[in-house]
Amino acid sequence: MPNEKPLILITNDDGITAPGIRTLIEVMNELGDVCVVAPNSPQSGMGHAITVNDTLYCDEVVIDKEAKQKEYSCSGTPADCVKLAVNEILKRKPDLCVSGINHGSNSSINVIYSGTMSAAVEAGTHEIPSIGFSLLDYSLNADFEPVKGYVKAIAQQALQHGMPKGVVLNVNFPKLKEEEIKGIKVCRQANAHWIENFDKRTNPLGRDYYWLSGEFVNKDKGEDTDEWALHNGYVSVVPVQFDLTAHHAIKDINNWDL
Amino acid sequence: MPNEKPLILITNDDGITAPGIRTLIEVMNELGDVCVVAPNSPQSGMGHAITVNDTLYCDEVVIDKEAKQKEYSCSGTPADCVKLAVNEILKRKPDLCVSGINHGSNSSINVIYSGTMSAAVEAGTHEIPSIGFSLLDYSLNADFEPVKGYVKAIAQQALQHGMPKGVVLNVNFPKLKEEEIKGIKVCRQANAHWIENFDKRTNPLGRDYYWLSGEFVNKDKGEDTDEWALHNGYVSVVPVQFDLTAHHAIKDINNWDL
């Protein structure tokens, strides 16, 4: 089938109507046949949650009447969306899965909390080449125009080369004008973390509750990290694996008295 | 402070009243001063979800009147519980965080969906030695007696040795009698995955919905894997890292035309 276009699955964690995913759909329509299966509401911070004790709704919707793509709005998490797409909705395994473009960073340790990246990882476990895209701008009105060329270029390369086995890509974009972006760096995840700061309040009934907030702390000064790249005007691309084994630590633990 | 006991934080994803966490509390009270901060309801499959757009309740509760430990019941996810414990509830950083004992397996790829393991990983990001424990029995009436000795031994070793930097432990127990368990194997995560099988139904109003189910498929025949250990009567201990960088793939991606 020499003329068959690539089949591209699109999802996100900000919900199917978020500007970030609409930009991603626009760009991917230039590269292949697009199918969208995305959450019907924001799912930020959902990590790799899946719906195991509840039902899932997944309905075809028309968001853009001129659109070429089919779109499905799902009551579940980003990982649920990928599972439903692969097993129920798509007639064949997609050639590429793209997730995002997330409104906000998923660099460094944020990858473990990210619904955007969990969708990409879920597709990776199904051996689908897969990329999560995020822009360092939490605003609902974030400007995705400057990054469209990079999204297209990276997706084209993934379609051409496939993905190393057991690997998906975590792509983050600095919040800059197109002409200010210096290029792309392939990086490692910076060794950074959050220091939480809970805001304790009392509700009208007198019961205490908390809002989670926090400060992101990066003590990793390596110039090969995603944080360095983003702070220096580059797009960061981190290859992410879902074999979480710390192979180097097996010998240490074998020295324990077990 | 030579006589100060270790401070041990306990959480889980099955909820604060689940038999698995009650067993863990019983064992840890033999090793140190215990504080429990756990979800007020089951959170299975929550992965590394955190509560970012909603409030959190966290109230001191008395579940066992004879108990030595303080206990807090939290409206959030397992990862939320650890963040709240470390930042709001505990007066000092705990010497150990243990999560579980989960009712059901968290071996192999299940680690990425596991609320139990996400709590352990969250503690690891705070540089707290941390272990997630799971028993291969989903039943609410699972028998945790046979594994108590192993839980204690592994926790004691973690208190004595600390943990390799950036590493937490994923411990799974086979569903066997105590005398049938052959010992402990330190393993890598098996390269296995789920093939989903959605059960499509129609609700009384005529709208379609789905139940997620699936089949776990392990084609990894390695005798150094957690799946091999568990199927052969051993307790599996996998060192898990939260630097997800696929370092070996950086060179591959650098060969792309980016």
Please give a handful of descriptors for the protein shown:
homodimer, 258 residues, alpha/beta, Stationary-phase Survival Protein Sure Homolog, Chain: A, nine-stranded mixed β-sheet, two-stranded antiparallel sheet, 6 helices, 13 strands, 22% helix, 28% strand, globular
Please explain how this structure is put together.
2 copies of one chain form a homodimer. Chain A is α/β, with parallel strands linked by helices and 258 residues long. Chain A has a single domain (7-190, 222-244), classed as Stationary-phase Survival Protein Sure Homolog, Chain: A (3-Layer(aba) Sandwich), CATH 3.40.1210. Helix content of chain A is 22%, strand content 28%. Chain A has helices at residues 19-28, 78-89, 115-125, 148-161, 226-231, 250-254, and strands spanning 7-11, 33-39, 58-61, 70-74, 96-103, 130-135, 167-173, 183-186, 192-196, 199-202, 208-211, 214-218, 234-241. Chain A has a 9-stranded mixed β-sheet with strand order 3-4-2-1-5-6-7-13-8, sandwiched between helices. The longest helix of chain A is centred in the middle third of the chain and has 14 residues, at 148-161. The model of chain A has no long low-confidence stretch (mean pLDDT 95). At the A-B interface, helix 2, helix 3, helix 4, strand 7 and strand 8 of A face helix 2, helix 3, helix 4, strand 7 and strand 8 of B.
